[in-house]
Specification:
single chain; about 280 residues; 2 domains; 5-stranded mixed beta sheet; 6 helices; binds benzoic acid; binds fe (iii) ion; plasmid
Length: about 280
């Protein structure tokens, strides 16, 4: 047994774990301690910096509540959420890529007839979203639930402005028919800043980073026998595509929004979702 020193800190801390504790927990914690101590030694962390870090994490926790999850926002802004997503959703060839879930999904949005417009506040330009939900063999998936949500034309989700926006504004659930098709109308979304009035916003400011996300429509697609898909369609041409504050963009998720002349919409975008089976562990 030895007392902790700069040279032996990792081994000393990790040696305290009981062999009787959970093996996966031991593996994760031993790696965490190794990298955390390595990082502190690498930058030779000062006591003032340590205090700043403790204050930052404390304020991050204090900001968390039912309506705000500042720790997930921190994970998003550091690229951690997308890295965890990448490791856990290595989509097989042909399957649609996933991306970050974000804090603005609300469970229980109304299931609507195909083609319904989900924009209830009369703001913004309307777009027809349509396509198919398919399996890896290209076969249509019937009875898939396509749960969609977006900001409004002012760049806010309904839950951010409960007194200003109608309930369920820019949200809805659509169930595919036998041909796997879906269609709905919503706004052509606009880019918006992630909530930046807390510690994460301060961190972005201190690093000279902006808080903006490129315009996108969120999708959660579920179907029996298939892995749940959480993704976005990004609006092609958006100026924030290459600097998304949460690193959520993938080239395969950038869609063309085509201008159309129709009494019901000004834009159209066609996008198919390809789900992988639940049996595929990738
Ligand atoms: C969103 O797209 O809704 C979102 C994602 C991550 C952080 C904040 C917002
Ligand atoms: Fe979003």
């Amino acid at each position: 047994m030895s007392y902790l020193s700069e040279g032996n800190s990792v081994e000393t801390v990790n040696a305290r774990m009981s062999a009787a504790s959970d093996a996966r927990l031991r593996r994760v914690m031993a790696s965490l301690v190794t990298h955390l101590h390595g990082f502190i030694k690498d930058v030779e962390l000062t006591e003032a910096e340590w205090e700043t870090a403790i204050g930052f994490l404390t304020r991050t926790g204090q900001m968390c509540g039912d309506a705000r999850q500042e720790f997930i926002l921190l994970s998003d802004a550091l690229g951690v959420s997308m890295l965890v997503d990448a490791i856990n959703h290595r989509a097989p060839e042909g399957a649609t890529d996933s991306t970050v879930f974000g804090p603005f999904h609300v469970e229980g949005a109304p299931e609507l007839p195909m083609g319904t417009c989900i924009s209830l506040d009369g703001k913004g330009e309307i777009c027809l979203y349509q396509g198919h939900v398919l399996d890896l063999d290209g076969k249509p998936i019937a009875d898939a639930l396509v749960d969609v949500w977006s900001d409004n034309a002012d760049g806010f989700y309904d839950v951010q402005q409960p007194d200003l926006q109608p309930k369920w504004n820019n949200r809805g659930v659509f169930r595919t028919g036998p041909d796997g098709s879906y269609a709905f109308r919503g706004i052509k979304p606009v880019s918006y800043p992630i909530p930046d009035d807390g510690p994460v916003g301060q961190m972005l400011g201190a690093l000279g980073r902006h808080p903006w996300r490129p315009a996108h429509m969120h999708f959660r697609v579920t179907a029996p026998g298939h892995a749940r898909l959480i993704t976005h369609i990004f609006v092609g041409g958006d100026s924030y595509l290459t600097s998304d504050a949460v690193f959520g963009v993938k080239a395969s998720l950038i869609a063309d929004f085509l201008p159309v002349h129709s009494p019901t919409e000004q834009w159209r975008t066609d996008f198919n979702f390809v789900l992988r089976p639940t049996t595929n562990p990738a």
